[in-house]
Amino acid sequence: MSMPKKRIAASIIAVLLINGIPTYAMAGFTAKKFLGWEKSAQDSFLQISISMAGVITTQTHTKMADCIDNWYFKDDETRFRRNKTILETMAKYLDHHPAGIVAASIERACGKFSDRD
Asked: CA 30, CA 46: separation in Å to the nearest integer?
């Protein structure tokens, strides 16, 4: 697939996913509020957020997509450890949006989203 087609596909995926995000994505949603959620809801948010990043990067940044897959989805134990680390980071940055902390965690492990293959 050519780069313009990949960008269009990624844009369409992003729009569909963003429009499906509930109100917790609105301004004012903080790590402090997120950490008050039930563990199952936290795990679901993290898995969906990282899955979304992985799906988008498959269209725009294939090396990063592979890294995300190996970094987070390698196995259940790996996913559990990554969630624990992300939650610990959120506890340090209570006033930040959880999605920003997730994105920063991915970039720390796999490189900048702005870098392209």
From this structure: 14
